[in-house]
Design a protein that fits this description.
This protein is α/β, with parallel strands linked by helices. Helices cover 39% and strands 19% of the residues. The radius of gyration is 22 Å and the shape is globular.
Length: 345
Amino acid sequence: MAKKRSPLVIPIFIVHQGCPHRCVFCNQESITGRNQAAIRPVRAAEVVATIDTWLARAGACHGRAVQVAFYGGSFTGLPRDYQEELLAAVNPYLEDGRVQAIRLSTRPDCLDEETVSFLKGYGVGVVELGVQSMDERVLAASGRGHDVAAVKTAFRLLRAGGMRIGGQLMLGLPGEATVSALAGARALAALKPDFVRIYPTLVIRGSVLADRYLAGGYQPFSLLRAVAVAVRLKTIFAQHRIQVVRMGLQPSESLEHDLLAGPYHPAFGELVLARIFFKRVRALLVDIPVGAVRTLSISPGDLSIFRGQRNSSVHRLEVLGLSARMELYLDPEQPRHTVRLVDSQ
């Protein structure tokens, strides 16, 4: 059976537009790689030009659904006439079938029943909510300007509108502990989002959090702790069959230049996956009697996360005396992110 291909997502950046608040962690210019000169209203003609460019790429969308995504700001916080301009620019592509859906990001408190109806009328099919935390104290300390009730209301409205819903969570916000992060993941999972993104909180120049950090009023998670917590969050979502589509911010030169502190790694998601994979492998190998050897089967696509960054997982298996109990087999038919023992023939 042919594997279903992921949609082609055409990005339109509306950097830090439409947001009525400046959260303590926020410096959208560094996070998105857009400088001050680039922060200007995106016009309909630019939307059309971007879509045409992506669609013109030979074979780029053959056999794939196409989505146009408005990233970087709180879309429904924009003036309504500007929202209409941007959405109307995509409309002809929806009507002739070249684009199947529009997706956008917004804040939970920038939605009401009329707004959801408006979005649905323009073909918006996916809305990502900047949830960030499900802890009231953490939301307040982060300057989010909304509470947990707003998150639940947004989910209810979007679900009634028939839209797919994504939720974004941040690790290590002010006032957050591991316990509250895990409780927040369970609370978000209970709302049944269609997918989730997990981002570690970073200290970026130009943010309120940077001032707190420099004054000694905030201590970010270490990379080791952030990875460990992300492992547990991803496990929680996996138990609820909720896909985690991204872990960690997209690397960029401006982000790395303006980073003051925090658990940043350009391959943060791979670190998390490698930790999860190592635990699965260790659990299988530890029950094999000393002196016995079994065949451990993984997908060829998982060889990197099996080995870990700089072969760290392989070295840990050697230290634990477990690597001698296995022979590795790469099975091209095996599903990704699975590991199993097979009997030798």
